[in-house]
Amino acid sequence: xxxxxxxxxxxxxxxxxxxxxxxxxxxxxxxxxxxxxxxxxxxxxxxxxxxxxxxxxxxxxxxxxxxxxxxxxxxxxxxxxxxxxxxxxxxxxxxxxxxxxxxxxxxxxxxxxxxxxxxxxxxxxxxxxxxxxxxxxxxxxxxxxxxxxxxxxxxxxxxxxxxxxxxxxxxxxxxxxxxxxxxxxxxxxxxxxxxxxxxxxxxxxxxxxxxxxxxxxxxxxxxxxxxxxxxxxxxxxxxxxxxxxxxxxxxxxxxxxxxxxxxxxxxxxxxxxxxxxxxxxxxxxxxxxxxxxxxxxxxxxxxxxxxxxxxxxxxxxxxxxxxxxxxxxxxxxxxxxxxxxxxxxxxxxxxxxxxxxxxxxxxxxxxxxxxxxxxxxxxxxxxxxxxxxxxxxxxxxxxxxxxxxxxxxxxxxxxxxxxxxxxxxxxxxxxxxxxxxxxxxxxxxxxxxxxxxxxxxxxxxxxxxxxxxxxxxxxxxxxxxxxxxxxxxxxxxxxxxxxxxxxxxxxxxxxxxxxxxxxxxxxxxxxxxxxxxxxxxxxxxxxxxxxxxxxxxxxxxxxxxxxxxxxxxxxxxxxxxxxxxxxxxxxxxxxxxxxxxxxxxxxxxxxxxxxxxxxxxxxxxxxxxxxxxxxxxxxxxxxxxxxxxxxxxxxxxxxxxxxxxxxxxxxxxxxxxxxxxxxxxxxxxxxxxxxxxxxxxxxxxxxxxxxxxxxxxxxxxxxxxxxxxxxxxxxxxx
Length: 734
Description:
Blueprint lengths: L5 H6 L2 H8 L6 H8 L7 H16 L16 H7 L8 H23 L5 H8 L6 H9 L12 H30 L3 E9 L2 E7 L8 E6 L5 E6 H32 L3 H26 L6 E2 L5 E6 L2 H9 L7 E5 L5 E5 L6 H16 L11 E2 L4 E5 L12 H15 L4 E5 L8 H17 L3 E5 L3 H9 L3 E9 L4 E8 L7 H7 L4 H10 L2 H82 L2 H22 L7 H49 L7 E4 L5 E8 L2 E5 L4 E5 L3 E5 L4
Parallel strand pairs: 5-9, 8-12, 8-13, 10-11, 11-12
Antiparallel strand pairs: 1-2, 2-4, 3-4, 6-7, 6-9, 13-14, 15-16, 15-19, 16-17, 17-18
C-alpha cells in the first residue's frame, strides 16, 4: 500500500489543506510537522491516527478536557548534548524540565480517563519519563532561568561578595553625588547610566574639578558623564567578581550538561511526543472548525460519501457567506467507475477533486467534511490526471504528457486503485483521442479499478452505459436561467450545453447560429436528445420529490387520524362500560325494590332473606357463566403455593427487620425523652418564659413564681399551677 505520489497530492491541492491546519499549532515544531503530513502506507497506521484524532476531538464535547500541552523547542539543547565540551543554557534546561512535567501531567490524565481515551493513553504510556532529569535541573536552575546559589558553595560566596561590592559602590557614589551637588558642579539631571554604570552629570565648565573616569558627553557637549574616582576601585573589583561568577556558572552548566548526555535519545522521544500531540490537537481544532467527522470505515471496497464538501471551496464560501452545495457520491462493487459529463464550469472538476482530496485526507489521518453515515475504505494506490499538464521542461505537449500518465495508470491499476481523470481523452483529434480513451477506460474496467472521469466525449458516455459495473453521471444545468446548478446526478449522461454556455458568456446569437449550421445534424440531435432527457429527468425528480413530500404529509395525516380514531374508540368503550354498569345498577335496584315491597306488604323476614339469597345465587350463576374460572393444573397450584410461601417468608423476614429497627428507634426515643425530662427538671423557670401545661396546647407567659407554684398569664386570664405540671416552650431572653 501507499503509492500516492507528490504529483497526486499537488493535483488535489493537499498542501493547501495542510496550510489551513497550521494556524492551530501551538509550536513551530508542530507547524513544521503539519506541513510534512503524508498519506500513511499501512491501514493499521491510518486507523491508529484516526482513532487518536477522534478521541481528542471528543474532548471538546465533554467535561474531561485534555490538559494544556504547550511546550518549548528543545532542538538546540538536544543538538548541544551531542557535541562534546559544550553546555546548555539555563532557559533551554528549563524547556526540557517543563516538557517532561507536561508529559507527566498528560500521562496522569490519560491514566485516570483511559476508558474515555484508550488510544491516547496507550500512546502516552509508551513514553518512559526519566524522573531524575527534572529533579537535576530543578536543583541547579531557578524558575527565572539562572544558575541557583545552591548549585555550589563557591558560586554562593562569589555572589555574596558581589552583593557587598555593589552596596559599597552605591554608598560611595551617593557620597560623591552629594559632595559635587553642594559645590554646584552638576547639571539639573544630576546623574545618568553609561555602559551599565552610574555616572555623574557634570557641567562642562567644571569637568576638571571632578575626579574620575570620563565615560561620555551629551549630544550638545554641555554635560560630561564622569564615573567618580571613589567608585572606580570597587567597579574593577566587581568586574573581576562577575567574571569569576560567569566562569563558575559555565562550570556548573557543563557539569549538568554532561549528566544529561546519556538521556539525549530520550529527550528526542519527549520532543517528538509533544510535537505529535500538538499535531493531533491542531487536526482536531481544524476538524471542529470545518465540521469534519470520522466516517464509517468499510471493510468492503467502497466510497459512499453523503453531503461531502470540498474543504478549500467550503472555506472560501464560508468566508464570503456563499452557500455551498454538498455532493453524494457512490463507488462500490456494483458501480466501480463513474463517467461524469455536463457543461464547462458546472462543477465536474470540483466533484472529482472532492473525491480525491477527501480520500487522501482520510488516509493521512485527517477527519473529513461529510455526513457521519458516509462509508469509505482505503486504497493502495490513488492516481490523478487533473488540470493542464503541459510539461515545458520535458518539451511535451499536453496530450503527450497525458499519454505518459496513462502508461503509468495502466502499470499501476488494479482492484485496490482509485483513479481520477479530468477531461479524459482531450488534447488531440476528438475522434482519435476519443477512441484511445475508450480503450483505456475498458482496460481500467477489466482491471477492476475504481475511478471517476470527466468527459465531453459521447463514445465514453455510451461505453459507460454498456459496461455492467460502470455508470454515467451528469452535472445539472438550468436551461431557463442558463446557469449551472453544481449538483451531481448519477444514472444518466449529461449534455455539454455548449451553445447555452456560450450564450451565457455573451457570445452573439448570429455566431452561435452560424456554428450550429457547421455541426452535423446528428450531433446536434444527439446533444438535444441528451439535453431533453436530462430536462425530463429533472422534472421527474422534482415530481418524485413533490410526491414524496405529499406522501409524507398524507402519512402524517393518517397517523393523526388513527390516533384520533383510537382515542374515540377508547372513549366509546369507556362510555359503553359506564352504560353497562349503570344498567346493571338499575337492574339491581329494581330487584331489591321488588323484594322490599313484598316485605313491606307481608312483613315476613324469613321470606325476604330467602328471596334475597335466591336472587344473589342467580346473579352469581350468571356472572360465573360470563367469567368462568380458569382451571389450574397441579403444577400451577404447586407453583402458586410455593410463590405464596416464599412471599410469606420474605414478609416475615422484613417484619422481623422492621421490628428490630422499631425497637432501636424506641430505645433512642426513650433515651432522648429521659434526657429531655432530666433537662426540664434541672431547668429553673424565670418570669417571662413562654410555657404550657403538659396536657394542653395553649401557651402563656410566667408572671410570678412562688416556691413550687407558678402563675401563668394567657392574655385574657391567669392561672396558678404546680411547677411539675408545665413544660418550657421558649426561654426568656433576659
